[in-house]
Design a protein that fits this description.
This protein is an alpha/beta fold. The chain has a single domain, classed as Creatininase (Rossmann fold). The chain contains eight helices and five strands. It has a five-stranded parallel sheet, sandwiched between helices. α2 crosses α5, α2 packs across α8 and α5 packs across α8. The longest helix has 24 residues. The protein is globular, with a radius of gyration of 19 Å. The two termini are 32 Å apart. Bound molecules: zinc ion (ZN). Zinc ion binds next to α2.
Length: 253
């Protein structure tokens, strides 16, 4: 199983029981001057596949669904060409349809592998937990499951060293040459509580950054990306095994 792109009905018909599905969720948006618009889709799915493959080696069958390619976008970013904003209502409708379909397939667990900082699924997942009490959904922001500071000089938030390294590892063909990289220089707020992240409001992307990047990509390389991808997929695989094997009635000790 693992990768739905490689599955046909003949595989599914004769396969072992799949206990859970993995849904990568990304975005379509500019990523500094050098990374693909699809970076969040490509990376959330690549990490999901690596983790699912590691879980499969430990005897846990899962299936990685196609990535949902549209995310919740910030003002400013939405004014740029080909940036696609998906409303929370639409994301909720998609998630309800995916969960309903998985339930009909006999699957009762889903891991959302989020690759885009603007996506927040907690509220929707709480609604789903109320409406489908026998269906468990866990959410992971894959870029947060391992402390990135021990892998990167300046990880960055958006198209910085972390994301650029990951793209150089998985999809170097979609990374422009180094001379194209923007600096990813970020302007701070004039209000200290917002800079300290004690308070939050959505940043206007074009006022915060001149090249859409947040974080310096100059020190990125494929080797750092490989090491980080391996660490992240190992942690996610461990969670997949625990989650898939867990008895929903014995989640608490
Ligand atoms: Zn991204």
């Amino acid at each position: 199983m693992t990768n739905i792109d490689a599955l046909s009905w003949s595989d599914v018909k004769s396969s072992q029981v799949v206990r859970m599905a993995i849904l990568p969720w990304g975005a379509t948006e500019p990523h500094n001057l050098h990374l693909s618009y699809s970076t969040d889709n490509l990376l959330s799915r690549a990490v999901s596949l690596d983790a699912a493959t590691k879980a499969e080696a430990q005897g846990v069958q899962t299936v990685v669904l196609p990535a949902i390619p549209f995310g919740s976008q910030n003002p400013g970013q939405t004014d740029l060409p080909l940036c696609i904003h998906m409303r929370v209502e639409t994301q909720k409708a998609i998630l309800y349809d995916v969960v309903s379909s998985l339930k009909r397939s006999g699957i009762n667990k889903l891991l959302i592998m989020n690759g885009h900082g603007g996506n927040t699924f907690n509220g929707v997942v709480r609604d789903l937990a109320v409406d489908f009490p026998d269906f468990l959904i866990a959410i992971s922001d894959w870029y947060k499951v391992v402390d990135s500071r021990s892998f990167f000089t300046e990880p960055g938030d958006h198209a910085g060293e972390l994301e650029t390294s990951m793209m150089l590892h998985y999809y170097p063909e979609y990374v422009k040459p180094k001379e194209v990289y923007g600096t990813g220089t970020t302007r701070q707020f004039t209000i200290s509580g917002l800079n300290k992240r004690l308070f939050w409001l959505p940043r206007n992307w074009q006022r915060v950054s001149d090249d859409t990047g947040i974080g310096n990509p100059q020190h990125a390389n494929a080797e750092k990306g490989k090491l980080f991808a391996d660490a992240v997929s190992t942690v996610v695989a461990e969670f997949i095994c625990d989650f898939a094997n867990a008895d929903p009635d014995k989640l608490y000790c």
